[in-house]
Specification:
By secondary structure, the protein is mainly alpha-helical. It has two domains: 11-25 and 33-53, no CATH class; 57-132, no CATH class. Helices cover 64% and strands 5% of the residues. It has helices spanning 6-25, 55-97, 102-112, 118-128; strands spanning 35-37, 43-45. Strands 1-2 form a two-stranded antiparallel ribbon. Strand 1 and strand 2 form a beta hairpin. Helix 2 packs antiparallel against helix 3 and helix 3 runs antiparallel to helix 4. The longest helix is centred in the middle third of the chain and has 43 residues, at 55-97. The protein starts with 5 loop residues before the first helix and ends with a helix.
């Protein structure tokens, strides 16, 4: 493969730019239109300095980000509700078994449940200490 010289590459790039401008004005697109008019005059490279030319793509990205945000919020609300339920169960169980301070143990269980695996292990260890 023979690489073009700098002069050949520069003349090719300017020809592509001229052709893309001509095609854009004629309603044709060859996929090389990269320039957009700046609101204050002049031009800038679209997607590098200014907004992208494809607004549907921007809207799709925004919609996907909103969906991710909604899913994460739903997950966090459900985990919090489950952890509160675990706290109530531990509180009721410690009250029935006669372990002192059931509210403390229930609150501790609810808070430690946010740490996966380690939190549940810590709850079991801490609740077995009063039994000794």
């Amino acid at each position: 493969m023979v690489l073009p010289s700098r002069r050949e590459a520069a003349s090719h790039n300017s020809a592509v730019r001229k052709n893309s401008t001509r095609d854009r004005t004629a309603g044709k697109s060859n996929g090389t239109e990269r320039w957009a008019a700046h609101p204050e005059g002049g031009s800038y490279a679209a997607g590098v300095v200014g907004p992208p030319l494809n607004w549907q793509w921007t809207r799709d990205v925004y919609d996907h980000c909103r969906k991710i945000e909604t899913d994460i919020s739903f997950y966090l609300v459900m985990v919090t509700a489950i952890n509160i339920a675990i706290g109530f169960v531990v509180m009721a169980t410690t009250a029935v078994l006669g372990i002192p301070d059931p509210l403390l143990w229930g609150t501790l269980a609810a808070v430690l449940s946010f740490a996966p695996y380690v939190g549940e292990f810590a709850i079991v260890i801490l609740l077995s200490l009063p039994a000794l």
